[in-house]
Specification:
The chain is built from twelve helices and twelve strands. By secondary structure, the chain is of the alpha/beta class. The protein has a domain of 197 residues: Rossmann fold (3-Layer(aba) Sandwich). It has an eight-stranded mixed sheet with strand order 6-7-8-3-9-10-12-11, sandwiched between helices. A four-stranded antiparallel sheet has the order 2-1-4-5, with helices on one face. 40% of the residues are buried. Bound molecules: adenosine-5'-triphosphate (ATP). The site of adenosine-5'-triphosphate has 15 residues, from strand 1, strand 2 and helix 1. InterPro entries: AAA+_ATPase, ABC_Ni/Peptide_Import, ABC_transporter-like_ATP-bd, ABC_transporter-like_CS, Oligopep_ABC_C, P-loop_NTPase.
Length: 340
C-alpha cells in the first residue's frame, strides 16, 4: 500500500556564509516523510541532520543561512512550501509547535528553570488551542501521566531542577506532543540522559507516536537505536543522503560502505573489553573542502575508478524502496558524470 505523504523535501540546500567560507551543511537532500510513519536520519556528527531539522522548523536565521529547494508540507490535503513562508511570520509560528514540533537533545537548556513544569506545558497548549487555563491544566496533567510521570498533579507545579534528566526528557516529550502534531522531530533525544534509561525513553516515543498517529523524524548518530523505533532509515553524510531503505534492509543488506561502517560502529554488549566500539577510518572532511564526486570517497576502502576520477554517483533505486548513491550499485544506470 502506498503511504500518503506528510512532508516532501526536494533538493534542499541549506548553506551558511561564514568568515572562513561557505558551509554546504545540507546540499541537495530529497526525503519523503509519509503520514504516521517513523523515519530515522542517521549519520556522524556534522553530517547535516540538525540543519535539516531546523530547516523544516524554520529555525535558521537567513542570513547567515541560505535555504533553497522545497519543503512541501501537506497541510489538511493542501500542499505548502515551507521554504517560501516567512520564518518569523504568524503562519510559520502556527505550524511550528502546533503541527510540527521538535524535542531537542538537552532538556535542561530547553526548559526554563524559573517557571514550573506545568506552566511550560500549559503555555504551549494555550498558545496553540482555544482551551481555557483550567482545561489546559487538565490536559497538561493528563499528558504528564501519559509520559510516565508519577503523581502528575503534584509534579505539575514543581520546577525543572526537581526533576531528574530522564524525567525532564519525558516532560519535553509531553510538550512536543501537547498539540497533537502531525510531525514530531526528535533530535538525539537520549544523548543527554543516563544510558540505563535511554531505551525506556525510546520505547515511550515509539508508543506515543503510534498512539497519537504522528509521524516521527528521529535524528541520531547511533544506528543501534534505530531498530527499536524507526520503520525507514535515511543515512546522511556531509550534507547528502547516501542510502534510504526500510530498517530491516539497512540492517540485513546495507549497500553503501558508509552505512556498513556505521553498523560496525554500533556498540555491541558482550564484545570483548576494549572492542566495544569500532569507528570508521579517517576523519570527516572539512565542510569547506567537500571532496568532488562521492563525498565518502576519501574514507572508502573500495576506491572505485569513478571515485578516483572524481565522478559523482546518482541516487539509484537498487531494489524496491532501497535507494543508494554509490558507484558499486546501480550498474549501467549509475553512469551520472555530474561533478560537484
Ligand atoms: N549556524 C551555522 N553557521 C555555520 N555553520 C553551521 C551552522 N550550523 C551548523 N553548521 C555546520 O553545518 C554542518 C552540519 O551541522 P549539523 O549540526 O546539522 O550536523 P549534525 O549531523 O546534526 O551533527 P551533530 O550530531 O553533531 O549535531 C556542520 O559542519 C556545522 O558546523
Amino acid at each position: 500500500m502506498k503511504q500518503e505523504k506528510l512532508l516532501e523535501i526536494k533538493n534542499l540546500k541549506t548553506h551558511f556564509d561564514t568568515p572562513e567560507g561557505r558551509v554546504r551543511a545540507v546540499d541537495g537532500v530529497d526525503l519523503v516523510i509519509p503520514k504516521n510513519t517513523s523515519i530515522a536520519l542517521v549519520g556522524e556528527s556534522g553530517s547535516g541532520k540538525s540543519v535539516t531539522a531546523k530547516s523544516i522548523m524554520g529555525l535558521l536565521p537567513q542570513p547567515p543561512a541560505e535555504i533553497n529547494g522545497e519543503i512541501l508540507y501537506n497541510q489538511n490535503e493542501r500542499e505548502k512550501n515551507l521554504v517560501e513562508l516567512d520564518p518569523d511570520g504568524e503562519e510559520y509560528a502556527n505550524i511550528r509547535g502546533n503541527e510540527i514540533s521538535m524535542i531537542f537533545q538537552d532538556p535542561m537548556t530547553a526548559l526554563n528553570p524559573v517557571y514550573t513544569i506545568g506552566n511550560q506545558v500549559m503555555e504551549i497548549i494555550i498558545r496553540h488551542t482555544d482551551l481555557s487555563k483550567k482545561e489546559a491544566r487538565k490536559r497538561g496533567i493528563k499528558l504528564l501521566g501519559k509520559v510516565g510521570i508519577a503523581n502528575p498533579e503534584q509534579r505539575f507545579d514543581e520546577y525543572p531542577h526537581q526533576f531528574s534528566g530522564g524525567m525532564r526528557q519525558r516532560v519535553m516529550i509531553a510538550i512536543g506532543l501537547a498539540c497533537n502534531p502531525t510531525l514530531l522531530i526528535a533530535d538525539e533525544p537520549t544523548t543527554a540522559i543516563d544510558v540505563t534509561i535511554q531505551s525506556g525513553i525510546l520505547d515511550l516515543i515509539k508508543e506515543l507516536q503510534a498512539e497519537f498517529k504522528t509521524s516521527l523524524l528521529l535524528i541520531t548518530h547511533n544506528l543501534g537505536v534505530v531498530a527499536q523505533i524507526a520503520e525507514k532509515v535515511a543515512v546522511m553524510y556531509l550534507g547528502e543522503i547516501v542510502e534510504y531503505a526500510d530498517v530491516k534492509d539497512i540492517y540485513h543488506s546495507p549497500l553503501h560502505p558508509y552505512t556498513k561502517g556505521l553498523l560496525e560502529a554500533v556498540p555491541v554488549l558482550g564484545r570483548n573489553r576494549g572492542q566495544e566500539f569500532t569507528t570508521i577510518e579517517g576523519m570527516v572532511p572539512d565542510p569547506f573542502n567537500i571532496p568532488a564526486g562521492c563525498r565518502f570517497s576519501t574514507r572508502c576502502e573500495e576506491q572505485c575508478k569513478q571515485c578516483i576520477a572524481g565522478k559523482k554517483p546518482q541516487m539509484i533505486e537498487v531494489e524496491s524502496g532501497h535507494y543508494v548513491k554509490c558507484w558499486l550499485h546501480g550498474g549501467e544506470a549509475n553512469d551520472g558524470t555530474e561533478s560537484d
